[in-house]
Amino acid sequence: DKSNFDAIWVSSLTESAAKGHPDIELMGLDSRLSTAQQILDVIDKPVIIDGDTGGDPNAFEYFVRKAENLGISAIVIEDKVYPKRNSLDEESEHILEEPRIFANKIRRGKNALLTNDLMIIARIESLIAGKDMDDAINRAKFYLEAGADGILIHSKSRNPDEVISFAKRYKELCSEIGMHKPLVCVPTMYNHVRDSELRNEGFNMVIHANHLLRASINSMQKVCRMILEHERSLESEEHCASISEIFDIVGFSDIKNKEKMWR
């Protein structure tokens, strides 16, 4: 269905930037849960949380229980050492966690859950950190055997070849170990590839991670410049949603209709 997205991604970069902070795990997991709760209050779609590194294993156990209680559908955690740096920053050093340690965090998170309603997806950062494909596949094996409900392979290359290569080897790995878990990608850099093409290559979920944030920043900066330049807001109106449209989006129009109906 091209008219709707299937789920909402609560991005670490987006939440941090929206609150004026860099994406280096400053906000904390409770802040991410609070944002997710606000989203869950007003939508009827699954919510997937970017859980950064998941923090300390003890804290991660509490995090997944809280997320489970809220009704979160999935948490994605990446195999970097805390505190992580945003994966798309070329100048940052990306230090990977030892696979067995990260696998144990996944295992503890799964054991802390009371139901099977919350997925824990392991995000592999090998290609971000300059490691080879063997390292990425080795990590995938560790994480799947630890109970991960899916694997996200991340890349900052503008060419999708390396994630497609991973997808092929991942399919072989799943057959080898006898488990077939969903494969996820985030095509921020290789955005010329269509979702349907990625699906044909074996990806089950495609996350478009930060485009609404980036679009909103461009629009807000443009409107601010126009108001300052013209000393009024008239010229900016064509770039703004109408008040009535906002009323419709946030449910105010629905409230007015109900009040009329129940008079």
Descriptive keywords:
263 residues; 10 helices; single chain; alpha/beta; seven-stranded parallel beta sheet
Please explain how this structure is put together.
With 263 residues, this protein is α/β, with parallel strands linked by helices. The protein has helices at residues 12-18, 29-40, 57-70, 99-112, 133-145, 161-177, 195-200, 211-230, 243-250, 252-261, and strands at 8-10, 47-50, 74-78, 119-124, 150-153, 183-185, 205-206. β2, α3 (57-70) and β3 (74-78) form a beta-alpha-beta unit. The longest helix has 20 residues, at 211-230. The radius of gyration is 21 Å and the shape is globular. The mean pLDDT is 95.
How far apart lie the N and C ends?
39 Å
Report the β-strand fraction as a percent range: 5-15%
Number of beta-strand segments: 7
- Structural class estimated from helices and strands: alpha/beta
Please report the number of helical segments. Answer: 10
Share of helix, binned: 40-55%
Q: Give the biggest sheet.
A: 7 strands, parallel
Model regions low in confidence, pLDDT < 50 over at least 5 residues: none
Strand order of the largest sheet: 1-2-3-4-5-6-7
Q: Based on CA inertia axes, which overall geometry fits?
A: globular
Order of helices and strands: EHHEHEHEHEHEHEHHH
The mean pLDDT is 95
> How much is the radius of gyration in Å?
21 Å
